[in-house]
């Protein structure tokens, strides 16, 4: 019989298995789904970061003021194109769209094709750059709502003379109606700017990033800015009305 081998304890150490956890700052919704879903989730996460990085100053009314100023500028531009007391604004003609090619949808501003020069108080001269543009410019003026009849200049083939008729009672009333409507549109634009500011303050309230007292004061300040804007709109319209009624 073979002698039994002596048993010696093993010198190999047994280490307990340590479970390792990987920590990540990636939201769980970015880890699920396919490639397309991950792409959409990444974009949504980036949008969330951008939103939280925006200006959280409730007293910042720069966007509101810019919206109101834009509305007032548009109002002034619209009112400046109305005829008053027989005077004519050249910008009214310059903004007309001209079809250079018959049947084409492409148009060009008349001001890019010709120069408008006042001639006395009852006429303007349209100095056309190219002779080929005379016919389409004439057509654009005749088919507009300006009630003007261009006449060729017998001394210059590239010039058109536009007699400006004196305003009638009907034309004054029509101009006053247009002015009132422009004022209404400006008021709506001011209130729309107010709505944007309200949503901004509401978002701060929901996120609780601003104290309630500050939100209340910011809301009161917003209303004062809007009130001043509406007063300015009313002032501009009243000024135009006085001129048109002369």
Report on the structure:
With 246 residues, the protein is an alpha+beta fold. It has 6 helices and 6 strands; from the N terminus they run H-H-H-E-E-E-E-H-E-E-H-H. The chain has helices at residues 35-52, 62-80, 90-94, 134-142, 169-207, 212-244; strands at residues 97-98, 108-109, 114-119, 123-128, 151-153, 156-163. The strands form 2 sheets. Strands 3-4-6-5 form a 4-stranded antiparallel beta sheet. The longest helix is centred in the C-terminal third of the chain and has 39 residues, at 169-207. The radius of gyration is 36 Å and the shape is elongated. 16% of the residues are buried. The model is unreliable at 1-32 and 42-53 (pLDDT under 50).
- Unreliable spans: 1-32, 42-53
Structural class: alpha+beta
Residue share in β-strands: 5-15%
Mean pLDDT: 81
Helix content: 40-55%
Q: Tell me the overall shape.
A: elongated
Number of strands: 6
> What's the end-to-end separation, in Å?
138 Å
The profile of the biggest β sheet is: 4 strands, antiparallel
Task: Walk across the major sheet and give the strand order.
Answer: 3-4-6-5
The arrangement of helices and strands along the chain is HHHEEEEHEEHH
Rounded radius of gyration (Å): 36 Å
Question: How would you name the oligomeric state of the polypeptide chains in this document?
Answer: single chain
Number of helices: 6
